Amino acid sequence: MRWKMKLYNIKNYSIVLCCLFFGCNQQQNTSRVEVLPYYQDASFTPYWLTPYANELNNFHKIPDFSLVNQEGEIVTSKTFEDKIYITDFFFTTCPGICPKMTSNMLLLQEEFKNDEDILLLSHSVTPERDSIPILQEYAELKGVLNSKWHLVTGDRDEIYNLGRNSYFVEEDLGETKTKEDFLHTENFVLVDKKKHIRGIYNGLNKASINQLITDINTLKSEKQF
Q1: Which of 9, 34, 167, 208 is the most exposed place for a label (fewest CB within 10 A)?
Q2: Are 10 and 4 a contacting pair, CB within 8 Å?
Q3: CA–CA separation, 197 vs 87, rounded Å?
Q4: Number of structural domains, the chain?
Q5: pLDDT one-digit tens code per residue, 127-182
Q6: Sign of the torsion formed by the C-alpha atoms of 129, 135, 137 and 139
Q7: Phi and psi dihedrals of 196, rounded to 5?
């Protein structure tokens, strides 16, 4: 299974390795592995554990948080209780990578719009600018379904701590960051119903988004094992 570990150990290049070994097939509904790996640090070293195994009791989980969405509603970890969700970090005035990331999040919204088990979560990295009315206007402009996709603002330190120390979304492994350093990343993170990280994907790459969709379907089937 050594090749499987390579598949998931190289963040944004995982989809490239997937294509080399398997060939990319957009019609594929499940991954070529029966269970997705688990991750617990910024190195994204895969841990091939059985779902609900005892080892997971002390494994890394996304901690509790409290933020506010585009409708002015409090969003906490309980909002995502018993849900699979995909998360990213953006800001509404971003002229670079964010529009493409939003477009690809919209693809996920469309793919799973009728699936109550799947939610989307986008954190503003400029919460001091992205107020509730601005997020609401952005959501309306982009076609965000409020029941499916939460655009959140709140305490800047909490958002940055979540991004760097809980979701591990940045690429600068081993580089010390302060709260003054800007958080900017194209990565999407897949989180399971038990708040464990199960994958990281390049939010700018359509092939990577297709792999994410495939992996979500695999994650949904884990109850069989």
Answers
A1: 34
A2: no
A3: 10
A4: 1
A5: 999 999 999 999 999 999 999 999 999 999 999 999 999 999 987 655 666 666 77
A6: positive
A7: -95, 145
Query: What is the CA 146 to chain-centroid distance, rounded?
Result: 18
Model pTM score: 0.84
Instruction: Tell me the residue type at 163.
Output: G
For 76, list phi and psi in degrees, rounded to 5. -130, 180
**184 known ligand binder:** yes
Residue 122 pairs in a beta bridge with 88, 151
123 close to 162: Cβ distance less than 8 angstroms: yes
First to last CA, the chain: 19
CATH of the domain at 158: 3.40.30.10
Structure tokens at 70: 């585009």
Other C-beta atoms within 10 Å of 102: how many? 22
Phi then psi for 108, rounded to 5 degrees?
-65, -40
- Token pair in block for residue 99: 């529009």
Q: Give residue 97's identity as a one-letter amino acid code.
A: I
Identify the domain containing residue 59 by its residue range: 2-224
Does 98 carry a binding-site annotation? Answer: yes
Tens of pLDDT, residues 187-205: 999 999 999 999 999 999 9
Residue 190 DSSP code: E
Q: What pLDDT does residue 170 have?
A: 86
